Amino acid sequence: MTTKGHEGSWVTIDVGYVDPQRRSCALCGRPLARRIWRENVEGHMREFCEPAHVALYRDYWLPLYGAGAATASSEPRLPT
Amino acid sequence: MTSTQSNPIDPVTLTVIDNFLTSTCRDMGVTMMKTSYSPIFNESLDFSCVIFDPDGQMLAQAEFCPSQIGTVKFTVTWTLDELGLDGFEPGDVVVHDDPYRGSGHVPEHMMLKPVFYNGKIFAFVANVAHMSEPGAKTPGGLSGDATEVFQEGLLLPPVKIRSRGKDVPDIWKIILANHRTPKVTYGDFRAMLASLDLAEARIIELLDTYGEELVREASRQLMTISERRMRAEIAAIPNGVYSFEDAIEDDGIGTRDFPMRLRLSVRDDDIIADFTGSAPQAIGPVNAIYAVTASAVYNAFLHLTDPTIPRNEGCYRPFTIIAPPGTIVNCSFPAPVAGGNTETSPRITDMVFGALQQAIPDRVVASCGGTSSPFLFGGTDPRTGDLYAHFHFEGVGWGGRKGADGNDMVVTINGNCRNTPVEVFETRYPAFLIDSYRLLADSGGPGQWRGGLGGERVLTVQNEVTVSALLNRMKTDPWGVLGGDAGSRGGLWFRPDANSEWRTFVDAFGTRSPSKFSGITLESGNQVRIVMPGGGGYGSPADRDPALISQDIENGFVSIERAERDYGFQAGMGER
Predict the structure, then answer these.
(1) What is the least distance, in Å, from the CA of B105 to any CA of chain A?
(2) Residue A32 sits in which domain range?
(3) If you count residue pairs, one on A and one on B, with CB atoms under 8 Å apart, how many are there?
(4) What is the Cα–Cα distance from B214 to B9, expressed in whole angstroms?
(5) CB within 8 Å: A74 and B257
């Protein structure tokens, strides 16, 4: 199944009890249960909790943290 | 009643339905309060009650525990996703307390019941509650030096505890066999079930009165209204990127701090709260799961925006929370998580206020004491021979805000709970007598609007008891905003008897942390002193009305020495 305006699709995985699948949204980090939105972004298949997060991944996350991003250090600093 | 789908429903009907749903949530809570066994239910009110639609959209909530109200969204949606709607039959109730499946932390159990109408699921009613005994490695759970979630209690993936209206004995047996206080768990679980039954009956009553289509459409429209109103509030905040950093002090295992970094983007009517760059997850139990971090951000914005916005799914739609897996704000299995919900959560909420202090200075508050001060204890009641366990928490000073000093000794911002009254505490548990319980002068951060006062409690052990702790703000300050100064830090001390010197638990028992440990046995006559932090101040102390300083001195909230030092106060300044 696809969603209008998106090239990915919903997939359903087994939650599993013997070997639980522990996956997270590529943008927000939210743990994913069974339904996963899968879409190719910049040549890589990514998993998201909802299609809307694909756009944010492209527009927000990649420019800040993606390869070649001119971002500040991601190392945390103590409060001053 | 005929269908009104797609047509705007009149405001009166919308309001009646919204109030009906909200008051149903309130009545669920009253049921739990009145029918439960444990003081954490019937005194502390550490629970929340909510209603969802079959798509996992929150239809209503009431004024319960903010950390639970945001988190339960994730618990419910995970449950519905994992089990599927086909997995429910009339009369079923699912119980769930696995943080790695969306619950807040192990002691908090969620129960969920489908409401069937005309043979189909119309809604789900749910409650989430902190059990006083979850079967952790030490009584009461929240073991301050746990290193795995397995040490924090019995994990329950979503399973049916009631099927088609009948108890599932095997599930009850497993749970009660793993809790130290099965009678209490049994009673509190029954209270949760009664609360769900009441809500189911109420919703059916609503559907009988207004019709299925109208209520469904009203719910949709109420969510749209909430989203529109929340977006309007966000749009009033200047666009920009606002940052703030704070740190959780030690994790009960090591002594280093765990910085958290927030990059808050306001983009027209959307918010992105990005925690990228926060510290890797801790070995000890100060980690927040994703749902807790998200809930803490929601909590901040629900404090900053119009409280009359209907509290449903629409409120939450404008927010995207980014929390990288494997960090202290979104830990990975099997990291321990107990303190994420009690300690890290209020700090995240405060970080949102800190980040927005330049953007909306009239609306933010300074840091609150930022700890739930969890102090757990348990043992054998010599009166009955039964085991007992209790999760005791304290209030803290809240931050000052424009136009008002901070609240004094109110349970921290993620809780909205009450503490256990002294009389109940002493009657229910044979462990302690409370020697003193008081506000602490000079603990509120100086400011134009002073931080709320922290407090102190001194307890004397009556019978051998095992204690654990998971407190914060003992090494780092509850910060002020906009020129306000920090509130005082908290503390936890021990002495063998009333005539000895106070010592830290590190000194007395060799714990790794002075505030996070578990399983310490205390004997009759020993004393414990818990000091709760104050709140940060708002605005420069130089701008405080001298009359208020004078009043603080008169009330014993601020000493003359500190008034002179912090405010430049001189005798006679406050006279009118």
Answers:
(1) 15
(2) 9-65
(3) 77
(4) 8
(5) no
Considering only the beta carbons, identify the residue of B260, B277, B290 that sits closest to A30.
B290
Instruction: Identify the three-state secondary structure at position B170.
Output: helix
Is position A60 within any domain?
Answer: yes
Domains in chain A, number: 1
| B334 preceded by a cis bond (ω within 30 of 0) | yes
Q: What ipTM does the predicted assembly reach? A: 0.93
Specify if A43 maps to a domain.
yes
What are phi and psi for residue B13, nearest 5 degrees? Answer: -65, -45
Contact (Cβ atoms closer than 8 angstroms) between residue B353 and residue B399: yes
| Contact between chains at B245 and A77 (C-beta distance less than 8 A) | yes
Q: How far is A22 from chain B (nearest CA, A)?
A: 8
Residue B23 host element (H or E): helix B11-35
Q: Is residue A49 part of a domain?
A: yes
Residue B147's alpha-carbon distances to B28, B144, B251, in angstroms, are 35, 9, 10
| Residue at A73 is within a domain | no
* Out of A24, A29, A33, closest to residue B78 by CB: A33
Kindly list the averaged pLDDT for each block of 10 residues, start to end, along chain B of length 576. Answer: 64 97 97 96 94 97 89 96 96 97 94 98 97 96 96 97 98 98 97 98 98 97 98 98 96 95 98 98 98 97 96 97 98 97 96 97 96 95 95 96 97 89 93 97 98 98 97 94 98 97 98 97 98 98 97 97 96 70
